[in-house]
Amino acid sequence: MIDASILAGRRVLITGGAGGVGRAVAARMIAAGAHILITDRPEADLAGAAAELGRGAPLHAFAADLSTSAGIAALFGAVDEKLGGLDMLIACAGVGSGPLLEMDDAGWRYVLESNLASYVGCTRAAIERIRAAGIDHGMIVLVGSISVHIKAVGESVYNAAKGGVASFAETLRKELMPERIRLTLIEPGAIGSAMQPYSAEERSRFIEEFQMLPPAEVADAILYAATRPRGVDVVTLRIEPLHQKIY
Fold first, then answer.
1. Cα first-last separation, the chain
2. Mean pLDDT of successive 10-residue segments in the chain (247 residues)?
3. Which end of the chain is more exposed for a tag (fewer CB within 10 A), N or C?
């Protein structure tokens, strides 16, 4: 059972907020009465997401490139200004990757910086603000991937980043336990979002054939973890489509 009322008034930062999962979880948080700031890369349709989600709700949007320290610093400056602090980080931001030998040096570094370094930097900044607020219900939700278990050919760089996120989450969770800051790792399978190299029509077909997850299902998994009572810790939640590709 999900009692979303405990999210009322919570200050929540959602990275990757213009994407399928980020947008879906933002909609659920807003419906529960949370105060939201969504962020995404400057080239993402952040304005479209904000227009769809806002409609009088307490929502803010800020474009930032989280692969850089400057982008993270600017984002958390906006968090301080718009939200006045933070109770929860939901990190959904990410970029896809090709095979290592088909990428140049800048390309594989960008994948690691976007999919791993941004998670570390945003988590650190979020914890600083949760500590400053002196609350005992702070939470970090990091969206990883089941790719680290499948280890599919052609995904070595992407897996390096997501494997780092998994190890980071599982270790940091133990470090945060004395402070009662919970940390959950969500590991979804293939998601029918724009991050996939397919058209919207193809993604819809894959979802209908149970080969990809609807973004809303991943958002519901995040909401489940975020609404557990304070003494209950969802450590890792793996969710995948019925016919997840494993090669």
1. 35
2. 86 94 94 95 88 80 96 97 96 90 94 96 97 87 93 91 96 94 94 75 86 92 94 93 80
3. N
At 103, which CATH number?
A: 3.40.50.720
Q: What letter represents residue 218's amino acid?
A: V
pLDDT score at 185: 98
Q: Is position 244 within any domain?
A: no
Q: How far apart are CA 159 and CA 126, in angstroms?
A: 24
pLDDT for the residue numbered 69: 96
pLDDT of residue 32: 93
Task: Report the C-alpha gap between 91 and 218 in whole angstroms.
Answer: 13
SS3 of the chain: the string is CCCHHHHCCCEEEEECCCCHHHHHHHHHHHHCCCEEEEEECCCCCHHHHHHHHCCCCCEEEEECCCCCHHHHHHHHHHHHHHHCCCCEEEECCCCCCCCHHHCCHHHHHHHHHHHHHHHHHHHHHHHHHHHHHCCCCCEEEEECCCHHHHCCCCCHHHHHHHHHHHHHHHHHHHHHHHHCCEEEEEEECCECCCCCCCCHHHHHHHHHCCCCECHHHHHHHHHHHHCCCCCCCCCEEEECCCCCCCC
pTM: 0.94
The confidence score (pLDDT) of residue 247 equals 58
Q: How far is 209 from 10, CA to CA, in rounded Å?
A: 37
Number of domain units in the chain = 1
